[in-house]
Design brief:
The chain is an all-alpha fold. It has one domain (about 15-265). The protein is built from 11 helices and no strands. The longest helix is centred in the middle third of the chain and has 35 residues, at about 140-175. The chain is globular. Keywords: Hydrolase, Membrane, Metalloprotease, Protease, Transmembrane, Transmembrane helix. This is CPBP family intramembrane metalloprotease.
């Protein structure tokens, strides 16, 4: 499928920013139930109202979202990267007719990620602390919905729309400024770097569950980077929404696999 490029001037910034911010904010709000459970299990909580702790825990991703959207909304269309939501808000282009041809690739990519990541994780299990599996939140309905919305929407806005677009634009302007769009080499590097940063960004959540060791750090970065590469490729070749659907699909399939294992293992 041919990639749908933006025009060189890009869309109206304000409309694009607001609709993508609303989507990302929904993902942050969906993270609240998981944050409540995590904070309730933490020893030595600061002396302040619990509601304030929840608000503070949401503040960091909110600030990152505001910054990522500012850079991504300006740079992504100039680097030839597409959001169907943005096109709808600024050009009135239909979403479903453009998304429908991308669904098969997005869902298949999500399934591949969901199968591949547990297999890779199994290779690390002999060297991981027991507390990691004991303290990890169960993949129940609440966790899955939160992961679909925060991971599938907000993380894609942060890492693909924000970080990857910035890397692609900077690489293009530094090394391929005579080209109309960033070339393959720049895009591949942008995908890889943003994928590794995606993995590094998960270290904080893992540190809550278990002390970080070299093996645990490698495992966390590698597993999330593999997912980041898959989602980044979809963002490049299809659209931001295709990457979102793949990311959300991966969480659904991983939950199904986890439930099947509970029943039969």
């Amino acid at each position: 499928m041919e990639h749908n490029h933006e025009n060189k001037k890009g869309p109206a910034f304000g409309k694009s920013y607001l609709i993508l911010f609303a989507a990302g904010l929904a993902g942050i709000i969906a993270l609240v139930p998981i944050s409540v459970k995590q904070l309730q299990n933490l020893p030595g909580l600061p002396v302040m109202p619990f509601g304030m702790l929840i608000v503070l825990s949401m503040l960091q991703p909110l600030i990152l979202l505001v910054i990522a959207l500012a850079f991504g909304t300006w740079m992504a269309p100039r680097a030839g990267l597409t959001s169907l939501l943005m096109n709808r808000a600024t050009r009135g282009e239909p979403i479903w007719s453009r998304l429908r041809p991308q669904l098969t690739a997005a869902i298949l990519a999500g399934i591949v990620a969901a199968v591949l990541l547990p297999l890779l994780d199994a290779l690390f299990q002999p060297w991981l602390p027991a507390s990691l599996s004991q303290e990890a939140p169960p993949r129940d309905l609440v966790f899955t919905v939160s992961a679909m919305l925060y991971g599938g929407i907000t993380e894609e806005l942060l890492l693909r729309w924000g970080m990857m677009s910035v890397l692609a634009w900077v690489g293009w302007r530094l090394f391929q400024r005579h080209e109309e769009r960033p070339g393959r080499s720049v895009m591949v590097i942008a995908i890889l770097i943003s994928a590794v940063l995606f993995g590094i960004g998960h270290l904080g959540a893992v540190a809550v569950l278990a002390p970080l060791t070299p093996v645990l750090i490698l495992r966390t970065i590698l597993l999330n980077a593999v997912g980041g590469i898959i989602f980044g490729w979809l963002f490049w070749k299809r659209s931001l929404e295709a990457a979102m659907i793949a990311h959300a699909t991966a969480h659904v399939v991983m939950t199904l696999i986890a439930q099947i294992l509970i029943l039969f293992v």
